[in-house]
Amino acid sequence: MLLGFRRLLSYRNSVLLCRNIKSDNTSRCAVLDSALSAFRLICGEDGVSLGEAVREQHGKDESVHRCCPPDVVVFPHCVEEVSALAKVCHNHNIPIIPFGTGTGVEGGVNASKGGVCFSLRNMDQVLHLHQEDFDVTVEPGVTRKALNAYLRDTGLWFPVDPGADASLCGMAATSASGTNAVRYGTMRENVLNLEVVLVDGTIIHTAGKGRRARKTSAGYNLTNLFVGSEGTLGIITKATLRLYGIPESMVSAVCSFPSIQAAVKSTVQILQAGVPVARIEFLDDVMIDACNRFSCLSYPVTPTLFLEFHGSGQSLKDQVNTTADITQSNGGSDFQWAQEAETRNRLWKARHDAWYAAQALRPGCKAYATDVCVPLSRLPQIIVETKEDLIENKLTGPIAGHVGDGNFHCLMVVDPNNPEELHRMYLFTDRLARRALAMDGTCTGEHGVGLGKRALLCEEVGPMVIQIMQGLKATLDPNNLMNPGKILQ
Ligand SMILES: Cc1cc2nc3c(=O)[nH]c(=O)nc-3n(C[C@H](O)[C@H](O)[C@H](O)COP(=O)(O)OP(=O)(O)OC[C@H]3O[C@@H](n4cnc5c(N)ncnc54)[C@H](O)[C@@H]3O)c2cc1C
């Protein structure tokens, strides 16, 4: 109870802090003034913006966290410019906030302590494609859809798919995953090397310059230190990524179940049977109803699985037959098939639009997605308990989940101007996170810590690990200039 109040208070305080900074920024203005001319020399008049609309656009993501605009937005064109800009910020002690496409859902780009937003959208080149080695190097403004469009005629693709058309380096920064992770892994498994500009402008390559070996035992894994660092350790200016061959055939299916337990139990059994399912997504009755309305579909309003299988000939048949046996033994309906690319795309677009479908349930409200992840065997229990909690507390929170990884979201639809409802939601999300921690899970499977989960991170990893994280942060960013206030309190 107390913790919920505290979170509400700290949320309000952070909003007030932003307002104070806005109205009382004389000394900061003086510092910025002297930095601005240097910024303009580095990336030109067009590469620096003080416009209110541009700053506001860069001071928020898709989360409920209120907009905290940076003091200035810069648009570098190359790593040398990023490095020179960082040096100026470092010399003037100005915070730096990296910005990809702003699709994050944890307030990661909010400039809660002011500073300079580095928008990386002008660095949007696919640099080195090694088809024969299944890897590619991209600049930070390349989005996952742009990369897959670029790869279209090569027979290759990049499968990590957070739904939104996020930048690939933003995805590395949040350790994103999504619907394909059950088969192809998350960003952690798919980043081979990163070029990073540190706070003082130093440029490093986490696996060594030009290295792109598919595996390595060479020293500490700095690549994975930066994956998930949410802009708090450096600015990612290049990512070398693993690619995969486009599967010979793909088939998607929808299956309805009489209960949540039946759907989730089927998921666990499918994975235990070793079926290499490519996607297995759970939608509860409220979520499928919202998707039906939003995307003009007509699936039964009961707990549902969306599945996808990748493979060729006999292997695809075997996967489908084993899965159908399991779902039927748990009372699942016959599969509704989607085989043509167009029908499959429509199905997955509906799943990816779940966030907007949830928001459409209550026009004018905002969505906040919880993101817990637990070991597979605990999944049925946690989803059932969570659903009961939602009903008891009269909260709108359709559930959609990457259940193949034990990861699911309650898409909480709340009125951001109703403090009582916000309070009820915070209490609920705290309870849910604690439930996941008590079941050996994590408070965030893929969205990151950002502003809202810093206290939960401490509970999850314990004070010793937090101290080590603080030590790493102090080594790489001694003046706490890189995206301050995110991840660590
Ligand atoms: C409808 C919808 C569905 C989503 N579904 C999923 C999902 O299924 N799975 C999932 O994982 N996420 C999901 N997300 C969240 C979001 O897409 C991811 O967090 C994404 O990885 C953010 O990328 P971005 O480029 O938009 O980053 P931003 O929002 O711009 O930034 C996110 C964080 O990364 C930092 N950052 C960005 N770029 C860099 C860089 N080059 N160097 C260093 N730090 C950087 C920022 O400072 C910030 O802290 C969803 C979002 C939406 C709106």
TrEMBL record:
Domain of life: Eukaryota
Class of enzymatic activity (EC top level): oxidoreductase
PROSITE patterns per UniProt: FAD_PCMH
Catalytic activity: (R)-lactate + 2 Fe(III)-[cytochrome c] = 2 Fe(II)-[cytochrome c] + pyruvate + 2 H(+)
Gene Ontology BP annotations: lactate catabolic process
Family annotation (Pfam families): FAD-oxidase_C, FAD_binding_4
Cofactor: FAD
GO CC list: mitochondrion
GO molecular function: D-lactate dehydrogenase (cytochrome) activity; D-lactate dehydrogenase (NAD+) activity; FAD binding
Classification via SUPFAM superfamilies: FAD-binding/transporter-associated domain-like, FAD-linked oxidases, C-terminal domain
Keyword field: Acetylation, FAD, Flavoprotein, Mitochondrion, Oxidoreductase, Transit peptide
PANTHER family: D-LACTATE DEHYDROGENASE (PTHR11748), D-LACTATE DEHYDROGENASE, MITOCHONDRIAL-RELATED (PTHR11748:SF111)
Self-association state and partner proteins as the record states: Interacts with CSRP3.
Protein's name in the database: Probable D-lactate dehydrogenase, mitochondrial
Organism expressing this protein natively: Monopterus albus (Swamp eel)
